[in-house]
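Hi V.,

Quick status before I head out on leave. The structure for the redesign project is tokenized and pasted below; the design run finished overnight.
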């Protein structure tokens, strides 16, 4: 990346995303109720969901398998967090381009983007805050992944 200030600023923002994902996954893992209560939450999300394909998926797939989806979400958040934090930290500490760290960071960002998109489609209709934070996180992770990928393939 040609502009070092942009690079370090972007990496710091992405590191913050990793910490957000870590906090979210820790709450689910430590709280001990997420797996058992997700079915109830998904039922609420499906109730007035404006997207027919999402409502159908929630009703026919996710709710009947809510324990599986809860575990996938919890561990997906944790793995995304660790990949983002590790990749961003290595790039910040080394102060130079590292292809492996960038690839790890990109994989974490893609996981985070997937989680944000799913949550936004499922719950974005419930409140402006649920809608906006997921769109902002998705957009910044997309920008970060695109910038890192562009640099990864160019050299």
């Amino acid at each position: 990346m040609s502009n070092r200030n942009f690079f370090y600023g972007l990496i710091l923002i992405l590191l913050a995303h990793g910490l957000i994902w870590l906090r979210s996954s820790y709450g689910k893992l430590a709280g001990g109720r997420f797996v058992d209560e997700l079915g109830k939450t998904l039922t609420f999300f499906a109730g007035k969901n404006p997207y027919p394909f999402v409502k159908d998926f929630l009703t026919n797939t996710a709710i009947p398998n809510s324990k599986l989806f809860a575990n996938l979400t919890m561990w997906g958040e944790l793995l995304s967090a660790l990949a983002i934090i590790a990749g961003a930290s290595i790039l910040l500490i080394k102060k130079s381009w590292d292809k492996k760290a960038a690839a790890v960071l990109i994989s974490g960002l893609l996981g985070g983007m997937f989680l944000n998109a799913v949550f936004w489609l499922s719950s974005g209709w419930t409140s402006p805050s649920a809608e906006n934070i997921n769109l902002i996180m998705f957009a910044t992770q997309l920008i970060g992944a695109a910038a890192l990928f562009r640099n990864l393939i160019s050299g």
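Above is the designed sequence. The chain has a mean pLDDT of 94.

G. will cover questions while I'm gone.

Best,
W.
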